[in-house]
Write a structure and sequence with these properties.
Length: 779
């Protein structure tokens, strides 16, 4: 391949997080333009994307100009499909009188020996229409010799034929054989004899011009010829683009043009090389040759760019799919609010494109209905929802009923209806419900509707739409998105599952309301809500589990116990108690299983507290016991207040990321950093409540040994707080001696331990070996 096929001129960044996959490019790009709904299949290789261009079969088979020539030759008595069958599938031996193919049958019935002879000769040449028939190049000389023989024969036949139709076809076969034999001089000679630049009238002339462009030595003329071929032949568009040199100044090529149409063709190809804003090129093409279908396609591409630049950040909160993650303002990628600001900047550019469309005389352009559609979507992009709906209403009246563009019109109409509502009063509009049902598998569209509702304060319907994106376990297509709560520390946090998003973002009140919504779906009098999403009982249970977990994060134990009790012991026995089964199932069935009693055991610490009470450990039992022990500890009449405060502190410690009961507050735990946007992020990373209750145990302690132990545990929690506030993560690196010394000096609990109990300090600070003895010395 002569040129590396990279169009975007931007280094596509494949960012992967330290732990693995991170979505980018086409994974995150939002688009509502469905190419199947628009008349640009002839440009399919150049549809907008974050990837490089590639040859598309749609382009190759789009126009069938050669087949149309043969149909005309046969007085339109045959079908184009029958011609395609012969040209694409038949071999030399298939061309015979008894063939069932109607195209061949017509030629034989007319005794058209000239046409039949040509087709057989062309089939003989097909094998040699490639650079290399043997990948090991063992028979290269033989192929060149045979190709030369066919080339000479084609030249003779072109010379002898009196019928201009076949004279030109044989000349073209000769041109192509000369090309594959690397004989550029012969191409020039043949082209000058049988073709002219100004006489490019049909597909054979255009294909011949392509080979002329290949052999042309003047790079300016070469660009002009490729631009002409690109405009005229869908089949040759990709290779023309490949060979076109965008480095040559456009002004030089324009000087070589002969008319305004050629100028427009040049601007078109230069425009396709521009991955950035292309409005100026569109204006130039319109000024020179407004009826160019390439102008309409450039507008289609510009809409695709704007969808990426505006909708990708607005809905997903990722930067646009073409943005280099590391270069050009790295900090912006770490702040979703700045990403949103960028989308607003690009809305201003959308307004400029809109003003251009409003200045255009639609009677002069091709596909005026598409231009009206583009106007409607640009109005939506610029948040002029009322005018967009007015334009859509006009389109709905004028578009034919079966026009596939209607599907996209409905998409933008629905987005207008959603986005144009008032905050706090947004709902799923009645007129949009049938459109949503029809497009329920169009995930980006459904997600965008949910995001619009979320932005407008309707968290119930937003969550319903998000939940509907998961159709089955076998459905691997995802919408990746972030939260407005993401900050510099959580810039890499993203979601593709509605449960994880609700887990991180929704308040208990919002979640409670959503559960009520889900439970009411089957009884709703609104058929949309009854039919759009089917809720499984297990899903309701999981959401109640999440609700109780959120209350635990808020330390609202009474509400948590109430919710957990609604689920019942059987639910928790199945979900959270695998460790009870002899220990063999611990972590094997689920990462969220309890493997230790959080009141008596500390992670990475030798056991030092005898278990006085044995009970099945799950969310409901831990919550119940925590309330019970807190009541005992807070009771002035309780003689073992220090003991119960210590057990309570152990439980809170274990519910942090450092403990064995982290699943009371989380549904997954990273082996690396557990910083998140959840409301208890500070507590989960620093065990502040544990530190507080170890302090309460200290207040009620009676012996120096137990007081020293309480201070030791407070100091452990304080170290976590110091690491968290300084940004040090021991999972990524070992602390330096200087760091540990600074932390030790800053830890007031360790300093209190040293000053108040100097004889106990070395025992406590050196390790955990003395914990058992000091705990026993409580009384």
């Amino acid at each position: 391949m002569r040129k590396l096929i990279i169009f975007t001129a931007i280094l596509l960044n494949s960012f992967f997080s330290a732990c693995g996959f991170y979505p980018y490019g086409e994974d995150i790009r939002f688009q509502f333009l469905n190419p199947d709904h628009f008349p640009f299949q002839a440009y399919a290789s150049f549809y907008y994307s974050s990837l490089s261009f590639e040859q598309s079969p749609e382009t190759i088979n789009s126009n069938r100009d050669n087949e149309k020539l043969w149909k005309e030759y046969c007085n339109n008595k045959i079908a184009i499909e029958d011609v395609s069958t012969v040209l694409e599938s038949y071999t030399f031996s298939d061309i015979r009188e008894d063939s069932p193919n109607p195209f061949l049958h017509y030629l034989y019935s007319k005794k058209d020996v000239e046409a039949i002879t040509y087709l057989k000769f062309a089939k003989n040449c097909e094998y040699f229409n490639t650079w290399q028939d043997d990948p090991w190049e063992r028979n290269e000389k033989t192929s060149i010799t045979k190709r030369n023989s066919l080339l000479n024969k084609a030249i003779v036949l072109a010379t002898r034929k009196s019928n201009p139709y076949f004279k030109k076809r044989y000349a073209f076969l000769a041109l192509r054989l000369a090309f594959y034999n690397h004989n550029l001089k012969t191409i020039d000679t043949l082209y000058d004899r049988y073709f002219t630049i100004s006489g490019t009238n049909d597909v054979i002339d255009v294909w011949a011009l392509y080979f002329k462009a290949i052999s042309e030595k003047d790079p300016v003329l070469q660009n002009l010829y490729f631009a002409k071929v690109f405009a005229a032949s869908p089949e040759k568009r990709f290779v023309s683009w490949q060979n076109f040199s965008s480095k040559i100044p456009v002004g030089n090529v324009l000087k070589a043009t002969h008319n305004r149409k050629e100028k427009a063709e040049v601007f078109l190809l230069y425009g396709l090389y521009n991955p950035d804003k292309n409005l100026d090129n569109m204006r130039r093409i319109y000024a020179e040759y407004p009826e160019s279908d390439g102008l309409s396609f450039l507008l289609y591409r510009e809409l695709g760019k704007l969808e990426n630049w505006i909708f990708t950040p607005y809905y997903s909160l990722f930067s646009s799919s073409l943005e280099d993650y590391w270069a050009n303002n790295y900090s912006e990628n770490r702040n979703v609010l700045q990403v949103l600001e960028r989308s607003e900047t690009d809305r201003h550019y959308a307004a400029k494109v809109l003003r251009f469309i409003d200045s255009v005389d639609l009677s002069k352009v091709k596909n005026p209905d598409f231009w009206k559609y583009a106007r409607a979507e640009l109005l939506f992009m610029t948040k002029n929802y009322t005018e967009s709906l007015r334009q859509i209403s006009e389109l709905e009246r004028s578009l034919p009923v079966q026009d596939p563009m209607r599907n996209n019109v409905e998409i933008i109409k629905t987005l207008d209806l959603f986005a144009g509502q008032t905050y706090g009063k947004a709902e799923i509009p009645e007129v949009a419900k049938s459109i949503i049902i029809k497009n329920k598998d169009y995930k980006q569209f459904i997600f965008a509707l949910g995001r619009e509702l979320e932005y407008l304060g309707n968290s119930d319907d937003a969550a319903l739409l998000y939940a509907s994106l998961i159709r089955s376990k076998e459905d691997y297509s995802q919408v990746y998105f972030k939260s407005l709560k993401n900050n510099n520390k959580t810039f890499g946090t993203y979601y593709y599952n509605y449960f994880d998003y609700l887990d991180a973002i929704y308040s208990p009140g919002q979640l409670k309301s959503f559960i009520r919504t889900l439970k009411g779906l089957s009884k709703s009098t609104d058929l949309f809500y009854r039919n759009f999403y089917t809720v499984k009982p297990s899903e309701i249970n999981s959401l109640y589990d999440l609700l109780g977990t959120k209350y635990i994060r808020q330390n609202n134990l009474a509400s948590a116990l109430k919710v957990f009790s609604k689920l019942g012991e059987d639910y928790f026995d199945a979900e959270y108690s695998h460790w009870e089964k002899g220990g063999k199932d611990s972590y094997s069935s689920s990462q969220k299983t309890f493997d230790k009693n959080p009141f008596y055991h500390l992670k990475y610490t030798p056991d030092f507290i005898p278990e006085k009470e044995h009970f099945k450990v799950n969310k409901i039992s831990v919550t119940r016991k925590l309330i019970e022990y807190l009541n005992k500890a807070n009771n002035p009449e309780e003689k073992d207040r220090d003991y119960y405060y210590f057990l309570v502190a152990n439980c809170y410690y274990n519910m942090s990321q450092y403990g064995n009961a982290w699943m009371m507050k989380r549904y997954f735990l990273s082996s690396l950093e557990n910083f998140s946007i959840r409301e208890d992020n500070l507590e989960f990373n620093t065990a502040g409540l544990a530190k507080y209750y170890y302090g309460k145990a200290l207040e009620n302690a009676r012996t120096d040994q137990f007081k020293a132990l309480c201070l030791r545990m407070q100091g452990r929690c304080e170290n976590y707080h110091y690491d968290f506030t300084t940004g040090f993560d021991p999972n990524y690196a070992s602390p330096s001696e200087n760091y540990e010394n600074r932390r030790l000096q800053a830890n007031r609990y360790y300093q209190d331990l040293k000053s108040k109990f100097p004889r106990r300090y070395e025992d406590m600070i050196s390790g955990c070996e003395f914990f058992n003895a000091y705990f026993k010395a409580r009384r």
